[in-house]
Amino acid sequence: MWTLPLLVFVSTVVLAIPLGLYMSWIFDGRYRAPRWLHWVEEQIDVGPRNWKQYAVALLVFNVAAFLVGFAILALQPLLPLNPDNKGMLAPSMIFHTACSFLTNTNQQHYAGEVHLSYFSQLLFICWKMFITPSIGLAALVAIIRGLRGDSHMGNFYVDLWRGVVYLFLPLSVVVAVLLIAGGVPMTLEGNAAVATLEPGAMGMDGQGAAKPQEVARGPVAAIVAIKQLGTNGGGYFGANSAHPFENPSAWTNVLTCLCIILVPVAQLVMFGRMLGKLTQAVIIFGVMLVLSAATVVWGISYDSLQPNPALTVQASRDYAMVDPASPGGRRLLNVPDLVGLPVDQSLGNLEGKELRFGTSAGPTWAAFTTNTSNGSVNCMHDSLNPLAGLAPLVGMWLNCIWGGVGVGLINFLIYLVVGVFLAGLMVGRTPEYLGKKVEAREMKLAMLAFLIHPLMILGPTGLFTVTDWGVKTTNNPAAHGFSEILYEFSSASANNGSGFEGLADTVGFAADDKEEKVPQRAWDIACGIVLIISRFVPIIAPLAIAGSLAAKKRVPFTSGTLRTDTLTFGFVLLGTILLLGALTFLPAAVLGPIAEHLGPLPFGN
Amino acid sequence: MLMQQEMMYRGMPIGGPSAEEARQRKLDRRASRRAGLFAPELLKAALWQSVVMLRPDIQWKNPVMFVVEVGTVLTMIFTAAQLMGHASQVSLGYLIALDVWLLLTVLFANFATALAEARGKAQADSLRKTRRETPAFRLVGHDQTEEVASTDLKTGDTVVVETGQVIPGDGEIIEGVASVDESAITGESAPVVREAGGDRSGVTGGTRVLSDRIVVRITASAGQSFLDKMIKLVEGAIRQRTPNEIALSLVLSAFTLIFLIVTVALWPMARYAEVYMQDYTGATEPVRSLGTDIPTLVALLVCLIPTTIGALLAAIGIAGMDRALRANILAKSGKAVEVAGDVDTLLLDKTGTITVGNRRATQFLPMDGYTAHDLGQLAAMASFADLTPEGKSIVELYGRETGTSSTALEGLLPPGARFIEFTAQTRMSGVDSADGRQVRKGAADAVVAHVQQRNGQVPAGVQKQVDAVAGRGATPLLVCDCGRLAGLVVLEDVLKPGMRDRFERLRRMGLRTVMVTGDNPLTAKAIAEQAGVDDYIAQATPEAKLGYIRKEQASGKLVAMMGDGTNDAPALAQADVGVAMNSGTQAAKEAGNMVDLDSDPTKLIEVVEIGKQLLMTRGALTTFSITNDLAKYFAIIPALFAATLPWLKPLDIMHLHSATSAILSAVIFNAIIIPMLIPIALKGVQYRPVGADALLRRNLLIWGLGGVIVPFIGIKLIDMALVSLHLIA
After folding, report:
1. What is the pTM of this model?
2. Comparing C-alpha atoms, which of B357, B373, B354, B355 is closest to residue B365?
3. Nearest residue to B427 via CA among B399, B403, B458, B449
4. What ipTM score was computed for the predicted complex, to two decimals?
5. How far is CA B374 from CA B104, B380, B395, B400, in A?
6. What's the gap in Å between the CA of B637 and the closest CA on chain A?
7. B519 — pLDDT class (breaks 50, 70, 90)
8. Does an H or E element contain A291, and which?
């Protein structure tokens, strides 16, 4: 039960330390590249940049990457490597997918094996999976340079190159080879045709012969490796890491689970090393570890240690409802009793789980994949017990427990700035972080970055709960349906990409894009907009903060200075994150998972 | 010399009503400090002002409270609609109660600001009493004067002020010396000497000349003087928001925006629940709850946005200025007070700050057959007429060592003795008795010359002994008796009591102290070590001070210093916090960003604490305001959905009476916490020099944890009160 999360935590930390040191070595440019790589680097290095130039380079590159990505998807039928002749995709789905993969989110309103050609998988998906985490990492590295007071923020293109070529490529090759050894396919051949054991199980063809079963396959190992390492999460198959070709065994499950948080943990080591202040990173690590462990323990406790309430005996209950028409103004609402089903529940809630990974693998993965902005899944989040489903939601709402590659720590720094501001005042000084005064300009930018997230989650959720776009697309009624809508926007705004599922949000091929697909189009477009805004505002604003801090004089450290590397400050951080998170999302949590947990289950008459 | 004169005047008894008056004024001021924060006359002024401030164009300046005001208007519109017969799911009484309490929230906030301003005004009024119109005698031509009103004086006018007259405006003495009673502004009854040409040439309008005649050049026209500016500042007439206040306002506005998003999004979410419950219960229309009732959502919004700190923010700033004023410090801007909290380095003058103003005799070192007792007697005889502190200290030391009372000491004097005064030429003083005995004491070389002149013997070891005394930071005086050297009197700088502890306290606050002295490096080092300061500037010239400040600032430190002379002006201007002494020159006062009316050099420490308190109070109340929200959620959220989703009842952990009582209790708590915290806002959170980490832990426990717990208790109590008073159905 607890072996899996413990194994993952311990081995991640062990691996993250050398990896983080390697990353700081790479991004501080202390390596000597082979001549041909060095030549490329010289070509793209246009010199050191200030924060504005860095941000502009980042944005320009992303616009270009969006256009190229959009073109690849839009031209899918005309491009090679399409043995199964995948057709033209619906425009809204192309827009959503282009946004989703540009923002390191990998929210999928499509199913890979159904809708994408090998060309799209390799040149769109796989390419984006390498560059987007590197873009996040580049932004983080630039911010670190600003915090430590470098005269410039570095060069975006060089940082991007370093991330892709020196970090993610070698790392992915190692993981992909291990995955292939674990049984994950790696081929460019089309679907395999297999004769079913029971003749005719797949139906008969026109000549009356039994149809073979079409088994989807492809270059899976390559994609799964970077999908996990780069907090991407977009599965090769629609079933993501629950699919036996993506995640065949308990061993590949541990490996891929570890890969989810490996780089996000290692970036803390890099942060401490590059700043030359390891204790700062240790405190942040401690806070993240507490939060991460809490979500894992919460998930397991309410899922693997609790039965599925829908299968359990429930007594009849009465609730008093206000009803002016009834005598006394009240009437009783009866929730009838529920007969338990003869199911062995000793292993907890098994609905939607892949038992080949072990019982706690589902909630553990669910916690890790939402702590980080990974978003791959190995169980059905829709089927988690209601309160267990809160764990992934909380991970995405806070969006700073490990977090996405690069951006996770950037998000954390926003909380940190807010914490520093309040705690700094309480020690009677103008707040300062790493010797730099935090003043109006920094706070303005920090609060801007901060309020985007609740705005992008609660706003659209509100909109979709009262319109047909949301109401008509949920597969479940009541609080659970609300959770489905809430989850989708949380996932989009956190750039996470995991799905609660149970939401009919797929338009499909252009040929399927009919009149009745309006709500699905709305999902594509709304999520696409949320994805873009929630990705770039919280990257650019902290870059600007770092730029403004870098320009400030460093204030000497005295005993009257607020220390940001103490246990006390760790509690300040923990308190700030939990309090702000609770204050922003508590009403939504109450109407979703908590109402579902406390209300009748299953819901309905 | 000046110091000596001043001490002489101070020693003089001052008769008449002016001293009495001054004492009375000082007592009044102390009483006003102690008097409750809610003195009736202040309350009256503040109450009216808080209604005036409801004007949207004024309220707009405080975004948090402006949102509350808009919300209040919105609920009032709903109330009016219901009065006109529009059906609603909530009772009219509930709506009216909401209107009243929301309005009270705004009024309480305005009241806090108005009260702080009224207190400032009251303080300013007591200062303004000194600004009453007085007749002034303006010099016209060479010796002619004309009488004009003080309010008609312009910069550059010269006026004559004679004994008993009030100085008509801020200015600089260009001719004459006078003792001036400054009790009107400082509350200190002892008069001070002001004279032309030195570092003590500045005079303040409203103070009274006690003796002599001076000619003053007015440096600030009526209404533009230092005091006038300060009065405007404390009255809030020209209140500029400080950088930190701006940053905090931004944070508060952002929180307001976030909670606006939360509340607005809640309506459709609640609607969704109402619709699915319609299906579930088979009702004919959505199962309504307070979650879609707009006035209730306004109440939720008001409870969530940081109204507590939003209401008190302006008051905290004004109170900071006010506290400075109560410490007799005139700050030129709120920013100056705020910056004081960030100061890293304090430049303190040795004399008067670290040591008691003057050197004191500490030891008699006899020579050539004299005993210490003989030497002491001789030195005391030579010093009877010497009214300088040094001279007095010799007599005191002798009295102390021999146990002789001062009257008995008088008996030592030979009859018919003639006193020889100290002059700059002879650098000796002493006494000649009728029988021709000459006793002298004075600077070593002067006395040696005196002895040699009278063909006396100068023992070989004397010079060595003199050097040894000088080498440890003390001043040697030689005493001779009829041309024969009797020994050495050692004068030493005496540290003020408790300075070591004070510097230790400063060090714990994170401040470095630097002693500034004109002494040679050796002496300076010795005293610096004794006093326990972190660094010293010896043989300090104005350039050296300026250079030191620049060096500190280059390494990112903020420097505070105090000065009085014109040559301090550049350093005062360069320092981040420059406190000019009120006794100082106009140039110094112009250059600094604060003026200390008491001219007390240890005031810097107080200034720093006031600055820190200001920031801490803001931080503490912001934390309190935000942590309060948790309990309010637990009161309001179950209430919002009680009618629609009855199974959310377990979330109502406070077991409040009903949905409407829960919401009203939260709103009432949110409102009354504002006046309850006004005293904290005005007095400031207590600062303790225990280091940042301990301070943070303490404030987190009180304001963070306290902020989580207190509202749970408060809301429950209010709910119980509402029920027991039958105010709620």
Report:
1. 0.85
2. B373
3. B449
4. 0.93
5. 80, 10, 13, 14
6. 7
7. confident
8. helix A278-303
